[in-house]
Specification:
The complex is a heterodimer of chains A (278) and B (286). With 278 residues, chain A is mostly helical. Chain A has a single domain, classed as MetI-like fold (Orthogonal Bundle). Helices cover 77% and strands 0% of the residues of chain A. Chain A has 13 helices and no strands. Chain A is globular and about 70 Å long. Chain A starts with 11 loop residues before the first helix and ends with a helix. In chain A, 45% of the residues are buried. Chain B is built from 14 helices and no strands. Chain B has two domains: 48 residues, no CATH class; 228 residues, MetI-like (MetI-like fold, Orthogonal Bundle), CATH 1.10.3720. Chain B has 286 residues and is an all-alpha fold. Chain B is flat. The chains are: A mainly alpha (278), B mainly alpha (286). Chains A and B meet through helix 1, helix 3, helix 4, helix 5 and helix 6 of A and helix 2, helix 4, helix 5, helix 6 and helix 8 of B.
């Protein structure tokens, strides 16, 4: 087998060469530096950095809050996508466009804005404070920030899948006596499931690495409200490059795993569509 | 749908009485209100807060914030970085999309995965890798020090980190679009004697125009708004290496809320503008 199939179009060498060179210079070389830096540490040092109690506490917060945020997004993102696809109400188009806002909004802006809203004297925080619920500067604030960041991933993944659900199947099920919940469970959910799982993973992957919006609302107390990316920044500020590299390496490995599972989930979704004859 | 009932018939069936039961309208209102409530708390309230806090001391104080030398320097730096990063990544995106969409070669899907990689990497790690490469203890640290070149804690580092973070944006818009459009017209142009560049500018570019605009504005929005990666490499030298998002952080930590939210409001307007252009592009595509 040859490297490439023949084509009469020009520019293969030039464009592939340029993009591969640029990819190597901007992305792969720096990532290699991270891997090499981690490799120069001894195995014992590597383990010691990773199992440091402060690091372990940060994984717990980063992963726990991200899981919770992605779960909240799956529930509310599904409901939002459903209302946008199925119902007509005033302002629907505008809200549909605004769903992408967390993508476009700089994370520092969402960070300070959420902190202002959820602080004890903020618009929403003041109604939660009497119940003893503190959002800003606690782990709940971290979950709130990560939920905002991940929302568009779920809505945008699920929206086309909901549009794919065959209404005539729902109608047929209804005439055959199926209740709402049965229709949802047996017809809607199976069609939407791969997209929902993709959206969940995308939101989770984004949340684990998120930095800007979280550091303003988290309070950043060691062992309590310190996320892993912040710990990397702290280690860099202390010139502990090896420690920062070790934590960065773990996060990079996580990113690879996430990317892989997202690709697998999307392949699953495509197979589902093919199996359904579309 | 050929042979099925026409749209009018379907609309007529949908409008027949008895289709909307009491329960189904209750379900509808509950779901719509849940959606709106969730978005109001998480998205609309924060957006409104930005502008209300920025204007809380009146227009004069708002405008005063933009007279500050350091704020102006931050705006200039952000524009400079975007002016370097966006064209570079656009050229890369077009080249990569041409190679990937127009030709069949081995390792193509691996190449696509590598291009997508920066999207999945944490912004902090994106900054960290450049510190490990060019920082004082990095691979090229000593070499750069001897020649008195600073990359980390200086503008070149900010440009590089921003480039890393926004690397895939144009390419991942163009690749699926060009794959979907196919090669027939380009092959016809080449057969008729057009050169490569002529084919690109007269045949391919008009077809992918809107997709390109879409990718470029997303790339630009992320480039101007990036915080984490830039924060790691910037060194936070006020007025010198702070971009707008970093300047927001500095003002916020100084409890200068009006100024912090004033700069934030500018970034919010940028995001709104991005979404408006995006919606227009989507309309054009249809």
């Amino acid at each position: 087998m040859t490297f490439r199939q023949p084509s009469i179009l020009p520019g293969f060498g030039l464009t592939l060469g340029f993009s591969t060179f640029f990819l190597c210079a901007i992305v792969l070389l720096p990532l290699a530096a991270l891997v090499m830096k981690t490799a120069t540490m001894g195995w014992d040092d590597f383990i010691r950095v990773l199992t440091d109690p402060r690091a372990v506490a940060s994984y717990r917060l980063s992963f726990g809050a991200s899981l919770l945020a992605a779960t909240l997004n799956s529930v509310f993102g599904f409901i939002i996508a459903w209302t946008l696809v199925r119902y007509e109400f005033p302002g629907r188009k505008l809200i549909d466009a605004l769903i992408d806002m967390p993508f476009a909004l700089p994370t520092a802006v969402s960070g300070i804005a959420l902190t202002a809203v959820f602080a004890e004297n903020g618009w929403i925080g003041q109604y939660l404070a009497p119940f003893g619920i503190k959002v800003a500067y606690t782990w709940i604030g971290v979950v709130v920030a990560l939920t905002l960041i991940g929302l568009p991933f779920v809505v945008r993944s699920v929206q086309p899948a909901i549009a794919e659900v065959q209404r005539d199947l729902e109608d047929a099920a209804e005439t055959l006596g199926a209740g709402r919940i049965t229709i949802f469970r047996r017809i809607v959910l199976p069609t939407v499931m791969p997209a929902l799982a993709t959206g969940f993973t995308l939101a989770f992957a984004r949340a684990v690495g998120e930095y800007g919006s979280v550091i303003f609302i988290a309070g950043n107390l060691p062992m309590r409200t310190e996320i892993t990316p912040l710990l990397i920044v702290i280690k860099l500020e202390q010139f502990d490059y090896a420690g920062a590299a070790a934590l960065g390496f773990i996060m990079l490995t996580m990113s690879f795993a996430m990317l892989l599972s997202i690709n697998l989930l999307q392949a699953w979704g495509r197979r589902r569509l093919v199996a359904a004859g579309r | 749908m050929a042979g099925g009932p026409s749209k009018e018939v379907l609309a007529e069936i949908a409008s027949r009485p008895g289709r909307d039961t009491v329960v189904s309208s209750i379900v509808k209102y509950v779901l719509v209100l849940t959606s709106l409530g969730f978005l109001a708390a998480l998205l609309f309230a924060p957006l409104a807060t930005v502008f209300i806090t920025a204007l809380s001391k009146g227009w004069e104080m708002y405008l005063e914030a933009f007279k500050d030398e350091d704020t102006l320097a931050a705006i200039r730096l952000t524009l400079t970085v975007a002016a370097i990063v966006v064209p570079m990544n656009t050229i890369f995106g077009i080249a990569a999309a041409w190679a990937i969409a127009k030709f069949e070669f081995r390792g193509k899907s691996f190449l696509i995965t590598l291009i997508d990689l920066p999207i999945a990497v944490s912004p902090v790690v994106s900054g960290l890798v450049y510190v490990l490469l060019f920082g004082a203890q990095g691979w090229f640290g000593l070499w750069l020090q001897e020649r008195d070149i600073s990359i980390i804690f200086a503008v070149p580092g900010i440009v590089l980190a921003t480039m890393f973070v926004t690397f895939p944006y144009v390419a991942r818009e163009l690749i699926p679009l060009m794959q979907q459009l196919g090669n027939d017209e380009e092959e016809a142009a080449i057969t008729l004697g057009a050169g490569g560049l002529m084919t690109f500018f007269h045949v391919t570019l008009p077809k992918i125009r809107w997709g390109l605009v879409y990718g470029v504005i997303l790339c630009n929005a992320r480039a101007m708004g990036e915080f984490g990666a830039v924060s790691v490499v910037s060194g936070h030298v006020r007025g010198l290496t702070t971009t707008m998002p970093l300047h927001v952080e500095i003002l916020y930590q100084e409890y200068n809320f009006v100024a912090a939210f004033a700069v934030a409001s500018l970034l919010t307007l940028l995001a709104v503008l991005t979404l408006v252009i995006k919606s227009l592009v989507e309309l054009k595509r249809k």
